[in-house]
Structures are given as C-alpha cells and as structure tokens.
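Pasting as-is:
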Amino acid sequence: MKHSLFAYIIPALCILTAVSGCIAQTPFLVTHFNKQDYNAGNQNWSIDSDAGGFIYAANNDGLLIFDGTDWSLYRNPDQTVLRSVFASPDGRIYTGSYEECGYWEKDGNGELVYRSLKPLIKHLNLHNDEIWKIISFKGKMYFQSFTSLFVYDQNRIRSIPVPGTIIFLLKAHDRLFVQSVSGMLYEVQDDILIPLDHAGVLEKTEVKTILPMPGGKFLIGTTSRGFFQFDGKTIRPWEIAASKQLREFQINNAIVNGKYLVVGTIVRGILILDFNGNVVSHLNTGNYLQNNTVLSLCADANGTIWAALDKGIDRISMEQGIGIYQEKPEQLGAVYSAALFENSLYVGTNRGIFSYRFDPSISDFRLNRFIRNSQGQVWDLKEVDGNLICGHTAGTYLLKDNELRQISGVSGGYSLRKFSGKDGEHLIQSTYSPLVIYRKQGKEWIYEQEVSGYQEPSRFLETDHLGNIWIGQSVKGLYKLRLNEKLDSVSDIRYFGKADGLPSDFNIHVFKVENRVVFTTGKLLYTWDDLNNKIMPYSELNNQLSGFEASKRIVDILDHKYWFIKKDDIALFEIKDGKASMLVHVFLPAYGIHMMEDYENMIRMDENRSLLCLDNGFAVLNLERLISAKTNKAKLIFRDLFCFDSKGIKKHLNPEQSPFTIPHPWNSVSIRYTYINSNNIRNLYQYKLSSIENDWSPLTEEAFVSYTRLPKGNYTFMVRSLNENGLFTSPIILRFKVFPAWYESTLAYLLYALCIILAFLSSTYLFRRRFMHRQEELRTQAVTKAIDEKQKSEKEIIKLQNEKLQSEIQHKTMQLADSTMSIIKKNELLIEIRKELDQQKKILGDQYPSYFFTRIHSLISRNMTTNQDWKIFEELFDQAHQDFFKRLKSSYPDLTQSDLKLCAYLKLNLSSKEIAPLLNISFRGVETRRYRIRKRLGLNSDSNLVEFIMQF
C-alpha cells in the first residue's frame, strides 16, 4: 500500500501494512496494492515478471505493469477481462482474454502497443472461450483455453487436438503437461498429447500446479487431494503434516522459490513449505494478506513473491532483516524497553510488561502472557548479572519466574548503570527525583540507599573513566556529579547549559561511544574535554555521521557498533579507531511504524538482533540479514525520456544514446526512472541537473521529473536511489545538449556581427551625413541670415525709399493739387475777366474799341487753354499716379485726349464745377463729356464713374 512521503531515508526492505489478532510476524513482510493504488479492477487473474524486474498482471480492466515505483494500466482493445499474461524473454508481453490473444511491444516512440493474433486463429473454434494459460516452450508459444490448445511459431497458429475439456497447461523441468477434465494427465510431446496417469490416481481432482523438484522429480498439486509425487513413471500421494490443510485450503497454484514451496490456495491464502513439506509460514487475511483467494503466483529475480488475488495484489518479501510485532492496540501499547532473558522476550510498555516466547515452528516470537502486577509505565528493563531488573513508574522491581518483586519504592526507574565505589561494584539509578544506589547480595541486587544533594528527574545517566556521573535531566540541563566515598551524597555538582557551549539548555542526552561520554542535542554531538575542563563539539565524529550527528539517542550493541537514532530514522555505524562507517540505514515510516517521540529507544537482544521500540509494538532487526542484504540484482534505470515543444507535442528519446542533442524548440524534457528489482517497499530518489541545480533534491517517491524551457547549454542529469542497506546507489547519468535558439546560433551571431558592422558603418555614414547636413544647415542658416539681414536692409531701404517716394508722391500730389488749384483759380479769374469784358462791351458797345476787345478776349482765351498748363499738370499727375494715362488708354483705346484729361480730373475727385474752368467749358459741357466717357468705358447707369476712375 502506498504511503505518504517522508523527507529522509527509506530502508531497503519491505513494510507490513496490516496485522490483526495476537499473531506475531515472521520475517515475511507483505506489501498490499489495492485498486486505489493501481487504478484498475479488484481481480487479478494472472501475474508474471520479466528478467528486467517488471511485474505484469492480467486485471479485469486490462494489463497492469509495475516498474518498481509506479503502476501503469493498458486497457485491452476489446475491453474484455484479461485472464492470462506471460512476459516473454524477447520483450513481448503476451496476454489472453475472451476469444482473443496477442502481445504487447514497444513501438518506435517507446509506447506499448497491442498486436492481435486473432486474424491467425479465425480458422480455430474459439467460440465463447477464454485464454487461461500462455506458456513458452521450445521456442514456441502455447495458448490454452478450456476447450482448445494451440501453438504459435511466430508465423502461424496451429491447433493441438485435445480430449475434450482440459484444465490448465503446466510447465516443469522443461516438460509440458495438461490434464483433461476426466482426470487423465497428459504430456505434450511434439504437439501431441501423451497420457501419463494410467492408474487414474488423479481422477476426481483437478491438477492446478506441477512443480520441478530435485533429481528430475515433480510435485503435482491438486485442488482437493493435496500434493502428489511424480518420478516420471509413478504418481503417489505426498504425505506431509500439511496435507490436511492443503486439502481443506484447496491448492490453486504454486511456485518453487529458492528453498521454499509457495502454495496459493482458494480458501486460505498462502502456505510456505520447505522441501520436506514442513510449514514455514501461513499467510492469510488474519495476519498478512488482503484476500485469501490466490489466483496466481510468480517470483521476481530477487525471490520476492507476487500474489495476484481475487482482491488486489500482494508483494511478499522473504527472509528479510526485520520482523514487526503489532498486537491489538488496546493490548500491547507503546513499547519503551525490552530484554531477552532466559529464552523469553520481556517487553516493557506504558501498560506493563508482556512476555513473548520463541516459536520454533515460525522461527520467531509469539505473545505469551502479561506479567501480573506490572500495570503502569515501564521505563527500563535490564539484565544485570543474571537478574532482570525493571524500572517502573511505581519503583524498581526484580522480575523472576514471571513474578515481580519490588526492590526499591523510589518512583520512576529510568537508567541503571554499574558504578565502582570504595567497597566494590554498585548499581546507580536515575529516577523521578533522587539517585538510587544498589549493591549485590549473593546473586541478587538489592536496594542500598538514596543519594542526597541531587533531586532532579533524570532520564539519562552515564559514568566516565574519572568517576564522574553525567546526568541528562528530563527537560533542562546537563549535570556532572561526584559522590562521596560512602556513595550517599553528592560531593561536587556542576550544571552545564547554553552558557557552557551547548546549543540549548533543553533536551541534552548522555551516552557513551568508544568509552567516551557523548552528549546529543538534536543538532550536533558534543563531548567532554577533560584536559581543558570544558564541553566542545565532537567534530571528529560529527563529520562522519552523514546527518546522524543530529541523533537524539545512541545505543551500544557491542563490537564497536552503535545505533544512532533520530525521529523515526535509524542507522547502524561501526566506529573504530576514530573512523565511522554506516552499515545499515532504516527509515521507519516506510514500514508504517513509528517510535515514541522523545522516547526513542533500541535494545540489544543478542549479538545478531536488536529490538526497536515502537509506539504500538516493537520490531526485531536481524543485523546479519540487514548488513548482508543483496543488491546485485537491483538496478537503477531510465524508464522513459521525452522532449516537448511549446505546444506540448512530445518526442521520444532513447536514453541509451546519451549524450544526445535537443533542438531549442523542444527544450522541455521529462525523465522517468525506476529502481528495478529492488526489495525496497517504496523507492526514494534524489536527482540534480547540472547548470540548474547545485545540490541533490530532497528524497522523493516520485520517479519522474520535468524541466521546462531549458536554456541552451550542456546538461548532466543524475539520479540515485537507496539500496537495501539504506545507502545511496551510484547515480545513473544522462548527458544532453540543448541547442541554442535560432537567434542564439553561431550563424545568428555572425549575422548579428554583420548587422553591427553594417549598423556601425551606417551610423558612421549617417553621422557624417548628419554632420555635413548640419554644417550645410549652419551654412544655409548663415546665408539665410545674411540674406534675411540683406533683405531686411533692402526692405528697410525700400521702406525708406517708399517712404521717400510716398513723401515725394505726397509732395507731388500736393504740387498737383496746388497746380490744379492754381490753374482752376487762374481760369476762374480769366473767365471772370472775360465775363466782365463781355459785360463792358455789351454796355459800352461801340464805345469800346473792337480791336482792344478782341485782343484782350483772345489773350484771355489763349491763357485759359495753354498747353504749358497741361504739361505741368500731366507731369505732376504722372508722378502722383504712375502710368495712369498709359493704363487707361491701353484698357480703353477709344478715349480721346479730352476724355483722358476729364478722367484725370475725375481721378483727383474734382467736381464738374471745378473741372469746367480747367477744360474751359461749361458745367453742362462737363456733364455731357462725362456721359460720353461712361459710354466709352462701358459703364451702366448704376455704376459710379468717379469711383471707377478712382479705383483704376
């Protein structure tokens, strides 16, 4: 059964997961796998293993495969129940089911696929029949149903005639047998059935197994009549003590496993026999198995038995180095101490003392009795010079003939040590309060006295070669005492704590290693430097204990061997000549067992066995088996290897092709591995990937690791497990290289370099161009500025010129105005004079001489119409109104000189009255001319002539 993962070391053995009743366990340890563990059906009809250590089971839901760490389920394409499975040496896994048989093998991607042989058996009559047995024999594959037997030679399938209904096809000593339902036993020779049981010995029973025995002999196992011996000629009953049990339990299958016969029954689990027929052990639901109906058995390369059950699969490890004893919880309780005394094992618990007797039939211990009047907390059981002394919460007792006799009434007998005084050897004991001294009287130890001067609850007590007594107080502090000569009082006492170099004032425990006092703190080991009279770290030992320098307790089992105990984690070290070597490493939670927290303890039973105190029982460790556990068949292998792209599409890689390369788009990898053929109940792994992880990962049960989006580079992946001694295996290594992305490739870098060069040249060119452009801009700005300044100067000059011109025009205009006004006034004066002259002539008549009149009149007319006045006017007008006459004449060529003059006067905004003197015509004549000009200019009646001339 699977358990939760713990952080440290798993032992290299198996776990017992279910016990009931008062039956102690043998060295057989069983692991349960149920349908929750392997995610398939309850029933497993057949089971087999291959040379690589993989386990295959024919399950109701399909083919189950166990790789030593994980279960995988491959469903039968027909969705029918698998009845048989056979792991062929060529790597194929043959299976049989309803009207179907075939084999499973890996394709090019490492995926297991099914190849059906059904097309080859269409000509055979396999109606409503199932394949129950598949056997490899002389290079051929034999398939057996209850009505058919056929053989496959890798090319075609042929049928072997059978005498009606047959039972099971069986192989032993490279011979092939089958029984008909009538009882006749046949041997298959050259694909022909040859009858063997001419005497009819096997009639009225079913042959379920035939086992090879030494000397070419056989054991024939039957359902209702037990075992028969067969020497090749004669079949006779095998009369053994277990025959009655075998008949009652009904043999269903059996295998030979080393020196044992392992018999699976229909009714009562598994019987393990030796070759003489003696029962070594009986495994059933009362002690080991999760189901009593054993449908199939096989043994793997390590001799571990796999049982396919009507409900689940059990793994049975034989001859292991640990036996676990867990009685009913309300009966035994938590174990604190034990002692092997006079061939009985006495176990001290929080409920009292229980005795176990050695049972030769199972080569182990069975619960015998509860020691009367021992109720209560037992702290210590110790055999001293032929006396079994019990430290109890109610005092200290002598245990003899299964009876308790009190020798001290001081409560709480914790630790008991021999101590030399002036008058000989004594025992000194730590208790709930004072120290107690015992002396020997005859052959027994008796109470002598209490020691005054020290009153502390003290669990741990040791003495050193200088006569000092070291005491670890139950909670706080460490004490060094010296007693007076009478051993009745403390003559010297010193307290040690954090101020004296210890890491804490609390939970300091005292032990001896190689005759040297050692203090455990849960972090490091410390020792007493008697030369410098101080406590210091025991660095020489700390550096060699591989994490067990943090132990809470140390147990001496002689021959320089010591158990170091952490919380649910123990290791056996050999310490000699200053060197420490780990021999065994056991992680208890892997067994489903735990020690009492803060009261962890182990007891030496004899030279080869140690007892481990548990919170609900105890375990016996066989050191010889633990140390000599074979791991040569166990192998750490890579199971599967894939790389993935960003879309999750995967590619299979072959670990055997390491080192290999991975394109950058496929830079995510997943790696599966397993510790195959190991006897570990649960394999734990550590791994690390160079360039990514510097340290090993924590121990994990997961045999799978993924790395996503690995950067380019060379990688070395290493994984290791724990062997059967609890020590690390040599790591297996996988080397691979992740190619850089296209933008990180050599070609890309060359392209980048080229781009950089081009960019540099371009930037240089652009810089120069920009510089030149800037220079050009500066030059242009300078020129523009110069031009602007010149233009500004020219504008200023033009402005001044315009102002001057305007001034001149204004002046000319004023001159024109003045000249025009002068002409007007002159003409008006001349007109007045002419009028006056005409009036005078009219009045005087002939009195006014005509000669003078005409001459004066002519003079007046001549001065009114002089060209000189017009030239002056025209000159001034052209200066004031440049090209007016030219533009007007150009636009209106029909205008006469008189019209131009009138237009000039209109430009000056003169009225008709003012114009008349200038033209020497009447006001009406001016209007007439204006009318004529309007017509020549093409103006309609609504247009104002003056405005038109003013704007022209």
